[in-house]
Write a structure and sequence with these properties.
The complex is a heterodimer of chains A (317) and B (291). With 317 residues, chain A is an all-alpha fold. Chain A has one domain (2-227). Chain A is built from 14 helices and two strands. With 291 residues, chain B is an all-alpha fold. Chain B is 73% helix and 3% strand. Chain B has a two-stranded antiparallel ribbon with strand order 1-2. In chain B, helix 1 runs parallel beside helix 5 (138-160), helix 1 packs antiparallel against helix 10 and helix 10 (237-257) packs across helix 11 (263-277). Chain B is globular, with a radius of gyration of 19 Å. Classes of the chains: A mainly alpha (317), B mainly alpha (291). Chains A and B meet through helix 5, helix 10, helix 12 and helix 14 of A and helix 4, helix 9 and helix 11 of B.
């Protein structure tokens, strides 16, 4: 199995492979942030910090302990989630932009601390040995992508997911309905961090080199743009947004130095013409059912209604 | 030593305060975090550099030119990137602001190159004045004086003029202000103009202080100024001034104590700590939750 996959991957142009993996990691990170910002409605401007923590934890577990890659990734996820829960407990009491700036501050602090620690090799960054797996890395990354999509979809439709959406809609009303708002917020924060940590671990092992400066404010903004571009709260949207934004810099490469100029302009235009994101107000399941000539399921229609009202509610605060 | 560091801190802090005022005023009126504000400050520094190096004008004239250019830029950005999004969710406007910010910093990199540039020598005569044990440069005095003058002018505009009254009314309640016959669009444009002018002045002053202007200077300064605005209570003008000064002084103190490699983290650590104790910032109004 492993040899066969190795050969398959060997046939793909390494450049395209790199883009594919970047897209995969982008999707993982966007899905993680989507749980926090899209589903629970807590604006985080520091998601890259969790990616950073994940990347360095995973790299150090490999370098210092030589841990097998699969256990390494899971452990990395849990460590990152624990850090997030620890941070989340005090700062998630804040709301709106105060929370946003706090997460931003936290991300900057993480970056500066990693830049000054001996164990993370200060500003030089860490070289990470390639992961020892029988399955090639790109396949691992996409496997994790699929697993994440499945998990997040289940969470969306679960009791837990509905509680998160209730928190997004109206905290006071949610509390009145018996939802422990703080607990759910911290749990969603930890879950988002878990996913980001795993993404960071994959990133570290695929790239082979990590530097704290790679996970700065701009990286957080990148991830947030993916989620908002795709449409807040929409899983399909996050996947599409992450794909477009991870691939865009590569496809704009022919423009050389104009690349980021166009990218910035694109972000503005996208928002002006589609302010709720590409997949905002569009239900993927509904689309598929309609294409098959069946009426959309009542539950999907209701969910769409709910997400619409809560979104317009969000706009007012 | 203490006095010396205090002056250093106040000089740095007043530039933060100048930028923070732009954030806080815009936020107060349309609750938008204007992420492009840091880039306006960067553009201000470059225009000042251009005016002094190429047009060979006096520092004060350069500052005026830079403020004028940035006023136009700020109003233009609002018209193009934010006005169409005023009715949609705040996050969309935030992403749009981030897009503008990426656009401007890349543009600056293409136009001026990636290297930091310094202001021409002798553009402002720097002399050291010794007061007691402290040495204060005339440059620091200039920064403190200009900042103070601009802030007093701002207070005057906001509290004593008709447009200032309209600004306060709009920030109190956008819809009611519009019903009372206030031209809300005009007020918002004016707010962006004011904020951009202050940021431009800050840019020129910082360019002189550190003698380095680069395309990416807007990011960190913008983040710190935003932190200052939140620290003081976002939406509050005196809060932004207080927050900026406080951040400047603590940052300089932190470096003096020996945390120089943690310099950029100090501002944010203070911010997080203050918010945990006082969730709406130092002078922020308490938001009443309604059911």
């Amino acid at each position: 199995m492993g040899d066969f996959l190795q050969q398959m991957v060997g046939h793909i142009n390494p450049y395209y492979l790199q883009i594919l993996v970047n897209i995969g990691i982008g999707i993982i990170l966007a899905l993680g942030l989507n749980v926090v910002t899209g589903l629970t409605g807590q604006l985080s401007l520091g998601h890259a910090a969790f990616m950073s923590i994940g990347a360095f934890t995973s790299a150090l577990l490999t370098i210092k302990l030589g841990m097998p890659f699969s256990i390494n990734l899971i452990l990395t996820g849990f460590i990152t989630a624990a850090v997030a829960a620890l941070i989340g407990l005090p700062i998630l009491r804040l709301t709106g932009d105060y929370l946003a700036i706090c997460t931003l501050g936290f991300a900057e602090i993480v970056k500066v601390v990693f830049l000054n620690l001996d164990i993370t090799n200060k500003a030089l960054g860490l070289s990470v040995p390639a992961a020892v797996t029988s399955i090639p890395m790109p396949v691992v990354v996409w496997g994790v992508v699929l697993l994440t999509i499945i998990c997040v979809t289940f969470i969306h439709n679960s009791r837990f997911g509905r509680a998160l959406m209730a928190v997004r809609g109206d905290e006071i009303a949610a509390e009145a309905m018996g939802i422990n708002v703080t607990l759910y917020k911290v749990q969603s924060f930890a879950l988002g961090a878990f996913i980001a940590g795993v993404g960071g671990g994959l990133y570290a092992h695929f790239m082979g080199y990590i530097n704290p400066s790679d996970f700065g404010f701009l990286k957080s903004v990148d991830i947030l743009s993916m989620v908002v571009l795709g449409g807040l709260g929409s899983i399909t949207g996050s996947v599409i947004g992450a794909t477009i934004l991870s691939a865009a810099p590569e496809f704009l490469r022919f423009m050389a130095s104009y690349r980021m100029l166009v990218y910035g302009g694109l972000l503005v235009c996208m928002m002006i013409f589609r302010p709720n994101g590409l997949m905002g107000n569009v239900s993927f399941t509904g689309l598929v059912l309609r294409a098959l000539g069946r009426k959309p399921h009542l539950k999907t229609v209701m969910e769409q209604k709910i997400s619409e009202t809560s979104r317009s509610g969000n706009g007012d605060t | 030593m203490f006095f010396q560091q205090l002056i250093n801190g106040i000089a740095l802090g007043s530039t933060y305060a100048l930028i923070a005022l732009g954030y806080t005023m815009v936020y107060g009126i349309i609750t938008l975090i204007n992420f492009a504000h840091g880039e306006i400050y960067m553009v201000g520094a470059f225009v000042g550099l251009f005016a002094t190096a190429v047009l060979k004008v006096n520092v004060f004239v350069a500052m005026l030119i830079s403020m004028t250019v940035c006023i136009v830029l700020g109003v233009l950005i609002e018209r193009i990137a934010y006005r169409p999004l005023r009715k949609s969710s705040r996050l969309s406007a935030l992403i749009s602001a981030i897009g503008v910010s990426i656009f401007l910093s890349t543009l600056a990199q293409m136009l001026f190159g990636a290297n930091a540039k310094g202001y021409p020598e002798g553009v402002f005569p720097v002399k050291q004045i010794t007061i007691g044990s402290a040495e204060i440069s005339t440059l620091q005095l200039l920064i403190i004086a200009v900042s103070a003058a601009l802030m007093i002018a701002l207070e005057f505009i906001v509290h004593k003029t008709k447009i200032g009254k309209a600004m306060r009314a709009t920030s109190e309640d956008y819809n009611t202000a519009a019903l009372m016959g206030i031209n809300v669009n005009m007020v918002i444009s004016f707010t962006f103009a004011l904020g951009s002018a202050l940021a431009a002045a800050g840019g020129v002053l910082v360019g002189l202080l550190f003698n380095a202007v680069s395309f990416n200077m807007g990011l960190m300064a913008g983040l710190k100024a935003f932190a200052a605005a939140v620290l003081g209570g976002i939406g509050s003008i005196p809060g932004a001034m207080l927050g900026g000064l406080l951040l400047g002084v603590t940052e300089v103190a932190g470096v003096a104590i020996g945390f120089s490699s943690y310099r950029d983290a100090i501002a944010f650590a203070i911010l997080v700590l203050v918010l945990l104790v006082k969730p709406t910032g130092l002078l922020g109004r308490k938001i009443q939750k309604k059911v």
